[in-house]
Every structure is written in C-alpha cells, then in structure tokens.
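Hey everyone, long-time lurker, first post.

I ran two proteins through the pipeline my lab uses and got sequence/structure pairs for each. Pasting them in order. The first:
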Amino acid sequence: MMGRLSSTTFDVSSLRAFAVRIALGISMCAVPLQASSLAQETSPPQETTAPAQETKTPSKETTPPAQETTTQPKETIKDGYAIHQTVDLGGHIAEHSGSDPMYATLVNLQSGPRILSQSLEMHAVGKVKYPFFDTLMTSSTGYGGDPINVTVLRMSKGKLYDFQGLFRRNRQYFDYDLFANPLIPDGLTSNGYTFPHINSSPHLFNTVRRMTDVNLTLLPISKISFRTGYSQNINQGPTYSSIHEGTQGLLLQNWRNSTDNWLGAVDWRVLPKTTLTYEEHITHYKGDTNWQLSGLNLQLSNGAPVSLGFDNVAVPSCTGPAILNSSTTPTTANDTCNGFLQYHRYSPTRELFPTEEFKFQSSSIRNIQMNGRVRYTDANMDLPNYNEYFNGLSSRSKLRASTVTGYSSAQRINVSADYGVVWQVSEKVSLSDQYDFWNFRQPGNNYLSEVDQSGTSMLAAPGPPSAPTTTVADSFLGQKTQTNTLTAAWQASPKASMSLAYRYRSRALNYSLLLGEDGAPPEGNPYTLDIHENGGILGVVLRPTLQWRINGSVEASYANRTYTQINPRALQHYQIHTTYKPRDWATISGTFNDLERRNNVLYVNHLDHSRSATVGASFMPNEHYGLELSYGYMDVFSRTSLCYAASPAPAGAVGVPAGTGCGNNIYLGTGYYDSPTQYGSIGITLAPVKQFRSALGYRMSAVNGTTEFLNPRQVPGSLQSQYQTPYANIAWNFSSAWAWKADWNYYGYGEGTPIGPTLPRSFRGNVYTLSMHYEF
C-alpha cells in the first residue's frame, strides 16, 4: 500500500567485485580511510529539572578509530607558512540481512567510495606580516555518501579578525513500522479482497537537514570588538503523514522549512574587569511544507483511483460490500464507503523574530562578581493563505467535498531579564543570588471559511456548494515567570564544602479564546492561573584524598498547582558523582541520578521517575595498551490517569467513574509506561610498536519494558529489544607519511517479543571500512 521512500543514493551490485576494486586501489594508489565523526549540534542552555532521556530505539554509534601513532612528518614551510595536510580516502563495504528500514533507521551506512576525512593547517612563521591570515584550518568528514557530512573552516589574523565557519549535512531516515500503525488484523477480507497489513510507518520520515554557521569577530582582543554571524537551517524531503475524514487518508508530506539567523554585536571592555555587550538577533522562519494525497491503491467502477483509508481494522461499512470486484487490477471498491479521491493542503508560514539584548559582567568591585542580561523580542507570525481541499466521501455527515481557505496572524512580545551576584564574604563563605524574569504575550487571530458539498456516492459529482461557514478566532496567551535563587556556600575545609539554596518561582498564566461563527461576535471564557513553587537545594563536595572526589546534591520543591496533568506538584532530585584516580593512568568513576515527580490530584494520580546509575573505569598504564569498561542502568517510568474509548475494549478495561468529565470516553486507564534499560561496553587498545595500533571492543544495550496496551494487537516492540555493536580496527604507519587502516563494525538489533501484524524489525549488518591515510 505504501511505497518506501529510498534511504540510499548509491548501490553496488557485487560486493565481491567492489572489494577487489577497493583492494587494488589501496595497493596501487595508496589511498586511506577512517571512521567519520559528527560534531553534534548543541542548543542554547536552558534551565531544566529532568535529564535528557534515552529514546526507545538505540542511536547510531561510531567506532573509536585506531589512534594515530606519534610518528608525524615534518611540516612543510612554504611562502612563510608551516603547512600540514592530511587526507583519508577509502570506502565502505556494507552488507546486512533482515529489516532494511530498521537498518536505514539505526545505521544507514552503505557501500561505496568515500572521502572519509581531510584537513589543512597553515600557521605563519617568522616575522613576516601577511595581509589575509596568520592561521588557517579546515577539515571535513563523511563525503561521498555517508548520512552525516561535516566541514569546518577557521581563519584568524592576529588582532584584526577571527573567523569560524561550519557546515553540516545530516540525512534523517526513520521507518519504525509500529509507529502510527493501525495494526490491521490478519484475514480481514471483503468479497475476496484481503485488506493489507501496513508494513511501513504511516509517518515514515526521510529528510535532509543542512546547517550552515559562520561567525566573524573584528578586533577580538581590543577594548571594543565587533561580532557578526549568520546561521541557516534547512530541513527538506519527503515524509508520510495522515488526515482523518471519515477514514484515515495517507498523505505525502513534502517538507521544506528553513530558519535564518543574523547576529550583530559589540563588546566594550569599559574597565579591565567589566564588559558591556549589545547584541541584535534577527530570526526568520519560512515554512513551505505541503501535503498531498497518497495511497490510492484501489479504483471505483469508473476507473477513478480511490483510497478507503489505511486504518481499516474492520471491514468498512458501506451500502453493500466494501469491495465490489477483487479480480480487477486494481481492485474495485464500493463508491458509498468512506474514501478519498483527492486531498491537498498548503499553509505557507512566515515568522520574523527581532531580538535586542544587553549583557554585562563585572568583577571590578572587590569580592563582588556580577552579571546580567536584558532581552526584548517583538515577533510577528503570518499565515497569509491557507488552502485545504477534500474530495471523497464521509458517509456519516454525507460530506462529498470541502474547501477551506483562510488566514492567520499572531504577535509575540517577549521580555526577559536575569541578574546574578556573588559576594565572597570571607575566605570560606560566599553568598549568591540569581534572579530571572520572563514575560511574554502572544495575541493572535484566525479566519477560516469552509464551503461544503454533499453527496452519497463518489461516482456522482459533488452537490452544489453550500453557503460559506466562517469562523473567527481571537486568542491570547501570556505568562509571567519570576524565579529567585539565594545560595550560601561554605568551604569547611580543603576536603569538604557545602552549599544551601532556597528557590522561589511564580508563574502567572493568562489565556483566552474567543470564537465567532457566521458573523456572530466572538465569545469565550478567559481564565488566569497563578502557580507558586518553593524549593531547596543542598550541595556537598568532598575530597577525602587528592585522588578521590565526590560531589552530590539534593533538590526538593513543591507547587500549589499545575498547568497540565504531567507537570509535577512535588519534585525530588538526587545526584551523586564520584571520581577516583588510584594511579595517574587509572580512573574509576560513578554517577547516580534520580528524578522523582508527582501530581497526586484526584483522577490525575501522575507519577514519574527517571533513574540512572553508571560506573566506568579507564586504565592506560602506558602507550602500548589500555582498557576501558562501562556499565549503566536507566529506568524511565510514568503513570497517569487517562480517559479513552476503544472497540473492542482491551482485557481488564475499567469504566469511567461518575464525575470525571471524560466526555464520550468510557474507559479509564493508567497510562503505565516503564522502560528499564541496561547498557555496557568494553574497549581494548593495543599498540605493541609505534607503527601499529589497534582497538577492539563490544557495546550493548537491552530494554525490558512494558506499557499499558489499549490495542489488543499492540506488541512491546522496542520496549523489549537488544542492540549490540562489536567493533575492531587497526592502523599501520608504514612510513612517516603513510598509514593503512581497516575498520569493522557489526550492528545487531532484535526484539524478543511477538512481531505483530507487520514486518519483522530485526536485522544484522557488517560494515567494513578500508582506507589509506596520507600526511604531507
């Protein structure tokens, strides 16, 4: 029913022939290879109370490459520059069995030649002055077909300027076939036609993300310096999506979204220990994603392509059988069933976010350090032309066709400020205070006009257009948040220190939605909500010996109310980290993190926790061998009351108690979710001689979780899965400039539970990487 969106752009018909070509290329041309690495994108720091949680499916892993030996060729001196260059050329030989979509989702490394990495460094030598740059560095990895490509460029010219540029390309492929899958039961037939299983995710994802960042600083070490920057993030490509209109229609969603950011800034060192900064940020978002009907796998008796939806877990109810003739190609469907003939949606969105920011930091006053920031944003968001068209049949409402047009706009005014000060009262005692303020207001308006056409058969033309039904909505969302944290710190001794903090946070929310239909004045029920939170934090740092360090903290807070069910009223957070170095070449470390959150309100009963514990050891007695060990355990748990409707009802379904306000939902669930995960690794590095270095190891993760199943055909899937990735690599420097490398990675994913009414998701794969490394 759904075709796969290809995740590969390179194919090799014969792995054996390709391996021969790689070997011949290495022996004749002496060219290289090395595992690529990705510079991970970071997001601006934000205050959080919960650690980042693991995803259900394991992430892509890369093998630590065999380390370079200490033998390095001398730099080339040319035209007053010391020049050093490297290049790694080679390729992958990839083979796998089992699920192609899961291999592409978790690994997506394909066979083919690669420019695995290259670098160029130039540094000015001597006393000659050069007009353009004193230092230049550029490097790149992953080009030639890998899903991740990175290029870096850095240039500087003494006191004049400093330039940094970064380009990243990342293909994001996701096809976990249980995601958004209706799980069509076996043997669902009508008039000889069997409704097919959905073997790819109805929300399959296959996009490419291109990120460009450039930053330039003028007069970087002067009293007044200037900074400018530009970044662009483009996300585009095909995905699947869905829409419900009588039945669930499959859509081809063509992504094309981009964000452009401009920065201009001035830094002024007013005093040796005081700096003032002004920054202007401009962010422009452009969303041009569109949706079109896909999945037209049947036909009407007149030959028109049609879809009865992909969510038919029971035979569709129509006037007569759902399938009129199963012997035609394609199969002929009943024109009185719920179905789609045409659908498209387009909603071009534009957003402009100008932000002014003033910052300062100072330590000019004795024993006082302070910093502060004020930000103001006046943003405008505009959807000038919304267009949605449906042509098909929704039999319950006798809707034959519908056209929706409209427009929308909104404004966001955001004011934020923070101020922090530290007072060193004495050699051992300090007091600090951090105040944060955030106030945003977001008014918006929306206009929609809908013209419907009635009918009872998709063979007949839609009826005459109805009079337009108009809807006008005026909305407002505002929130003012103030947080103050007062901390006292005491250095009790060289081996022990502690801190105690009190935190108060207040939130005032304002919301209104006024709706008016067909010219009637907008009406609604605005509301406000005030939330007050009090909390304390105790921190302890211990250093029993010079080799052993322990630090930990305990945080507890309570709020008088919450905005959503899963927001906690009570929170406890415990953290411990310890490091022990019995020798200079040995390090043993461990961590424990426990976040507990509760909202014990009647008919909410929310409880969640995120607990993790890790232990690791690294031993490197000399340059010839080393050992690294790690083990971790994580448990993410959540439970909250929820209302739902299901037919048939799952085993043990509990009816909704009176007075819960669940509307048409007749069952009450727990929303239970638990995913205990264990992961571990071992890595060994061997370098018996300077010219040879190797590494081998094993990594694994295993999840043994469960959740509340509301669908009787639902299976645990990745909640009960295992992922293992053993690896090995070698590097042989047969001269000061040349090195031969080989790398092997094994990827094995399996789910030890029932597969469900779809395709298996397990796979096994090997990726061999051969290369030559050259330095000059």
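...and the second, right after it:
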Amino acid sequence: MSGRRVVSGRRVGAGHAVLTARRLVHSGFALLLLAVATVPLATVYQDPALVTLAITAGVVGSLLAGIAAVRAWPALLVVVATPVAYLLVGVPLAVPSQAAFGVLPTGGGLRALVIGTVTSWKRMLSVDLPLGRYEALLVPALIVLLAAVVVAVSLTLRSRRPGLAVVPAVAVLAAGIALGGTTTTLPLAVGGAFVVVALAWGVWSGLGAGALSMTRVIAAALLVAVAVGGGTAIATTRPPSSDRAVLRDVVAPPFDPDHYVSPLVGYRTSVLPPNAGEPMLRVTGLPDGALLRVATLDSYDGLAFTVGDGRDTASSGTFARVPSAVDHGTADGERVSLGVSVEGYRGVWLPTAGDVSRVRFDANAPDTDYYLNATTSTAALPGEAVSGERYTVDTAIAGAISLDRLAELRPGSATQPVSSALPAALAATVKAHSDGATTPGGRLAALTRWLRSGYVSDSGDGEPFSAAGHSAGRIQKLLTSSPVLGDAEQYAPALALLARQVGFPSRVVVGYAKSGSDDDTSTAGAAGSTTFTGADLTARVEVETSGGSWVSIDPNPEKGPVPPTETTPSESVARPQTVLPPPPPEKNDAAVSQNRDGQKASREPAAAGWLEVLAAVARVGLPIVLVLGIVTAPLWAIALARLLRRRRRRAADAREVAASGAWDEVRDTIDDAGFDVDASATRTEIAALVGTPEVQRLAAETERSVFSTQVLDSADVDRLWREADAAKLSVIALAPTRWQRLRFRLTARSLWASARRLLDDLRTRRSRTRMGR
C-alpha cells in the first residue's frame, strides 16, 4: 500500500518561470488557431481594415497577457486592463473614420466606440454584407478578437492545461459563422485547417510531455471515430443546403415596405393642381429621357401594385442598410453620378436611377441612414425626405429599348409574387392585339404598340373623365373600352400584367421623367440641371430578359385630343366573367406614400411570430447542440455511467449490501482523487490513508453495519448515504485547485478500477470452483 499521490510544481505566474520556450510554443499554436478561426469574420467584412484589426488585436492582446503572466497579475486586474487597452486602440481600429490622422482617438470616436460596444451587435445584423468599414460595425470584431487573444494567451502562459486555449478559438469561429451570411465561404477548407492545427497542437503537446500512454491513444482514437462517424451519419441523412441559418435571419427586417402606401396610388394627387406645378426635385447629370426612379413595384394583389420584399419571392429582394458600394458586376449602361436636391418632394422612398451602387449624402449629414433593395435598386429612408436634403447617386443607366429590339427578346426566369386577382380580359387582349406575333417578345412589342395608340386623360380641366386607380376592375375597363383611355397609373400596370401573361417577369417603376417617349433616347450625354415638378411623375414597365437583365419600356401614349367614347365595349375582347372589386377611393396622398398603418394585412398571423423565432433558433441551435454532444460524448458518458452505478447501489435490497454500496461510492471517489490504494486494504486502512474525519466515520459505520448482527432499517441506510455524500465532498476538497477538483468529477479512473475489481472477483470465484471440484 502506497501513500497519496501528490501533485507538485511551483506557483504558476511566478516571474520568469512562465515564459519558457514550451509555453511560448503553446501560445503560437493558440494564435495560429485563432487566425484560422478569424476567416469567417473576414468574409463578413471583406475589407483590409479587418486584417489590420486582427493583427493589432493579436499583438496587443498577446503583450497584455504576457505582461500579466510575468508580473503575476490577478485575474481581476487582467479583466480591468483589457477594456483599457480596448479604449486605447479601439478608435483607429474599429472606427477609423473618427480617428485623427488615422491613428489617434478623438472624442467623437470614443463616443462611437463606447456606444457601438452595446448597439453595434444588433445593428450589424440588419446591414447588408459585406460590412466593410461602415460606421462602428468593426467594434464587434475587435471585442471578440481582443478578448479571445487575451484569454487564449493567458491560458497558455498561466494554466496547467494550456490546451484549454482552444475554447476561445472555437468561440471566434462560432461568432464568425453566427454573425455572417446565409451562404458559406470555403467551409471545408476553414474547418479542415482548424482541425489540422488543433490536432497538430495536441500531438505536439502529448509528445512534449513524454511518451503517449496506450490509454490516451485509445481515448483519442475513440473520440475521433465518434466525431467522424457522427458527422458522416449527419451528412448522409441530411445533406447540407447551400444556405444556413444565422442570427441575421432572426433579427426583424429594418425596413418593411408593407408599412407604406404604394407610390402609384398617389399619382393623380401629384399630376393635378395644386401639386402639378410645384418643383419636387432638382437633378444634375441625368441623361436625357432617363427615369428618376421613386420605387419599383412587383407585387400585385388585385387592388394595387406595391413594393415587394423577400417574403414574397427572392426576385423581390430585401431592404438592408448598405455599408459600402453594391457590386452589380458588369451592369449595362453608362456609369454616372447624379446630384439630387430635394425641394417639394416628401416620402420615405429615396429617388435614384439605374443600377445603384452607392448613395452619398451631403457632408452636413454624414450619418444619414438609408436602405437599399439591391435587386430592384429601390432606396428608402428611415424617416422622410425633407426639403434641402442633397445627395449623390453613383449608378449605371442603360438606354431605352426600341420596339424592334423588344420583339427579339426572350423572357427571363425570375419567380414573382403570385397575384391574388387579375383582370379577366388579359388572355383575350393578348389574343386580339398580338398582331399575329408568335414569340413572347413579338407579342409584347405588339401589345406595347397597341397601348401607345391609346389616349391620355387625368380627369383634369377640359379632359374627359377617366377613373383613377389600377385595381383589377380599373385595368379590366382600360382593356375593354374603346377608345383606350387612362393615364400612367393604368397603362403601366396594364402592360406589366400583359407581359406576365405572355411569359415575361415584369414590374412597374414609378418615377419622374420629362414628357415624351424615350423609344429612341440615347444615354450618350448627360444633361445639365433638370427640375422635376409634380406633373412629371410617371410610371414605366421593366421586363426581365433571358440574360437576366431588366429592360425599361414606356407604355404611355402621347397626349392628344380624345375622341368620343363609345357606349359599347369592343366586341373583340370578352367581358369579365366575374364580379371584380371596385377601384379604391382616391386618397389625398403625395406622390410618394405616407405611412399606412393597417392598410395591408400581414402575410402571416401575428400570433405565429414567436413560432418563427423559435424555429429559427432551433435551426441554429440544434446542429450546435448535436456537435457539442458528439464532442463531449466521453464526458457525459462518464457522468451517465456514474449515475447508473450509484442508482444500482442505492437500490440494493439487502441492508448490508446497501451499506457496502455507500462505502463503494466513497471508495470510487478516493480512486478518482488519485490515491493509490492497495486492493487488499481494509476500510479502516483506507480511511486512515485519506485522513478526513468524514471518511473515517463512514468506514467505522460501514464496518459495524456489515459485520454486526443488527438489522439496519431504511432510516439507517439513508443516514449512511448522507454520510457517504459528505465523505465524497471531503475527499474532493483535498484537491489544491478548482481544475483538479473538476477533473476528479470527470475522470473515468474509478470506472476502470471497478471493472478490474470485478474481473478479479470473477477470477477468484472460478479458482474456488475449480479447487472445489
């Protein structure tokens, strides 16, 4: 029988003994693992500023942790020093636009840094990727990386378990994935590199500590086998999709177009007095005939065309804050910069043109937020455009298409929102006015030519009456009346619906343009300053071609004398077969809508919102829980085995056996605590070796219960088990550190010892059986 095993070693953090070559190599492995884990974060920002931030955070965090280790700082002092370092380097790294000379912190920069520490987490989830250097959105990256470096290097320099530094690296990797987008970037490469570095670190650490024991080799092999087998099973039963669930899926969209009236609804209010002659916008650099877009409308519900979003279909796009330029690839058209000055215009929709890549506000309003739907190039403000506001739009504007070229086009493949109600005359109109064309492009060109042959009336002074609105009933009337009479509010929706009827994805674009057809307009030269009035509001149609581009079509006729309206509808077009809803009453809305609380019903019941959040959390959380379960399988398997062993002993029927089971629980704890106990040692000898009063008292009680003729009742058994629990705690308390006490609770030493004792008992019984024969 040998004595208690003693863990020896000098105090960690004692001066120069910390910075040994071995610990520095551990730190190098930890930093390399952190560098690999930073790759998902780099894809979130896609800016050299993130590289500078990561390198600086690594240097500053390592120096801070190294000084703290050499000077033997307590953990509380390290916790205090880290935020101080964060404030010193945070402005030039995380808010570079607010740093003096690019390196010195300023008052405004410190304010943005401190506020961003709290607010930038949610804000970054509502901004479209990549984040770049937008506002203070680099703050979360600095917090994550600086904290991870300090913790990881401190563990490698001060802890007896430097391998725990892998935990901060895993946290950085998880943060990059959770804060990123729904599409993956090199997931196999990043994951493979992370595993390779971690395994190389583990192998080097094991070899450096001496020869690897067979037990450790087997345990490592089992862990790898479980992880690989579980991952293979998951990949086989549920192949990964191209998208993944991330936190930004759970955050509510920052801008919901459903809260605002369609800008086409207020058309008549804009083009008729008193707003018709009021200056709305002054624009410089806009090519002749080009449309200054207010909004793109692609969702039709039988009452109005509205601005769609990603909840309808992916082709509607989504609104998001834009931190940097939007990459449209090889966008068609001439790249120009438009200067826009707001005068009488009001509304949430921000007028732009073409394929917008960037909106820059006047220097007097550098912090103005705006949202951009990059799919439809529709921009919006959180509040409302006000008089005197100025901004610049960097964009690419394509020229208009002629009807001859239109006839050669083939439809695109965009999936659009399904309309709940349509005019009944669409099919008959296509048949009657396609002029014998057999191709979708030819039919669309013929229908456009037919609509342009109609007449315009806004029901103004001296004009024949023409009902407002663009409901299914109003479009039905436009298509079946002779002569065709309406204005842009009817002609553009009518052509959009007819285009869909012949196979072209289509959408209505509301905006400002000077009167006249742009069929042969060229964008070769940008005009000077143009002032748009309320009367210049119009609507056009865009259709998607097979190449994926959207081309603009102006369906509006030129104004001219209107012939008398016939009393009977055209016989070539059938009457609608169903009763259609009446057109909505006119509203005194401005050209661009005001907030419409409750006008449009939500697509989903409000009560189901929490279910969506729960489902999103489950999509993110369940895979993480599953992976953690596989990785931590050895730990919870040990805990489960111990629990089952305790329950079996406690539930034993015989009183003396139950008393022995209580002692066996303590004996196992003694084995787990690292005591080398001879197999033939008695309870009294083991208690004397441990030396705690609780163990000695339990040993004596167990000896009496086993060898005494007195029968124990249930109260005695309960008391013995309570004493056993106290004895176990007294043994665990002998460990000098918390980590050792935690290790005692998670080790499998006693399970192996129990198995060996069971095998010894079986051998002894077999030997006695043979001797008896």
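Reply from user beta_strand_b:
Welcome! Quick read of the second one: The chain is about 45% helix and 10% strand. The chain has a mean pLDDT of 78.
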